[in-house]
Amino acid sequence: MTIDRTRRTTFNDVADLYDEVRPRYPAQLIDDIIAFSQIPDRGRILEIGCGPGNATVAFAGRGYKMLGIELGARLAALAVKNCRAYPDVKIINASFEDWQLEEKSFDLVISAEAFHWIPPEIAYPKAAHALNDSGTAALFWIIYQYPETEIYKALNDVYRRIAPAFDNPSKSITPEWLTTQITGNFAESKYFGVVDVKQYSWSVTYTAEHYIKLISTFSVHDQLEAETRKTIFENIRAVIENFGGQIAQPYLAVLFQAKSKC
Predict the structure, then answer these.
(1) Which helix (DSSP H) or strand (DSSP E) does residue 33 occupy?
(2) Is residue 224 part of a domain?
(3) Domain span holding position 42
(4) What φ, ψ does residue 167 adopt, rounded to 5°?
(5) What CA–CA distance (Å, rounded) separates 249 from 236?
(6) Separation CA 217–CA 18 (nearest Å)
(7) Residue 254: Cβ within 10 Å count
(8) Which of 8, 16, 22, 38 has a 20 to 30 A CA-CA distance from 211?
(9) Domain with 97 in it: what CATH number?
């Protein structure tokens, strides 16, 4: 599986939906990052690709100082709005590649579902150099699970019938593939120590309307013609309504943490 990094700007086009419907991160994941990093009270966090601030507020609410970097202008504006209650949070609208490095200035670097959009030969060294001598990098992703239930089989049939050549979202990345990629990137960079990996499972139940909003934020759907995408979404809505009007979406978050060796 390859990563098409040209798609990394597509989330800005659906910024409001992303803010509304993307799942938030488990409290245990946040707790585990704080415990592993041993970040001091009022410590400083760099967040790479903060989006509308979905993870930002989870850390800012615990009193940490934060600098969030976000490529998308609309997403960055939403992050500013969502973090307005936290005066120690600053949001910059820029790419991580273009951001002026503040060397050895942060206790913790985090990135929620964004680090893979940056070439690893840039991302890992720059993150390491931003950390102080005892700093930690914590990278985490949410993997959308597609169980072999009747409703998900019906959703798969929608894609097969309307867009058979489409790379169906059910062929999502697996935890095994992600773990191989990310631990490999950490090791190849030579800037970090042993990687700690943890997983977190939960489920969210959506109405048909909210599920359509959710999948509208998936960058893979930009591969489709607008009319095809509309037809798929209409058929997915009909499937969910036929199954009682709700769908349970299982999630698996995978967290990777490592100490800087700089």
Answers:
(1) helix 27-37
(2) no
(3) 5-146+170-203+250-259
(4) -80, 90
(5) 14
(6) 6
(7) 21
(8) 8
(9) 3.40.50.150
Q: CA-based diameter of the chain, in Å?
A: 56
Report the first-to-last Cα separation within the chain, whole angstroms.
31
Quick one: which of 28, 98, 83 has its CA closest to 253?
A: 28
3-state secondary structure of 92: strand
CB atoms within 10 A of CB 142: 19
Spatial distance between the Cα atoms of 18 and 22, rounded to a whole number of angstroms:
5
Cβ 112 vs Cβ 253: under 8 Å: no
Is 28 a domain residue? yes
Q: Encode pLDDT of 212-251 as tens digits.
A: 999 999 888 877 899 999 999 999 999 999 999 999 999 9
CA gap 256, 111 in Å, rounded: 10
Number of structural domains the chain divides into: 1
Sheet (strand 106-112) strand order = 89-93, 65-70, 44-48, 106-112, 131-144, 246-259, 196-207
Where b means 16+ CB within 10 Å and e means fewer, 227-237 reads eebebbbebbb
SS3 169: coil
* Residue 186 within any structural domain of the chain: yes
CB 197 within 8 A of CB 253: no
The two structure tokens encoding residue 249:
């979406």
* 239 within domain boundaries: no
Q: Where are the beta strands (DSSP E) in 33-175?
A: 44-48, 65-70, 89-93, 106-112, 131-144
Query: Can you give the pTM of this predicted structure?
Result: 0.93
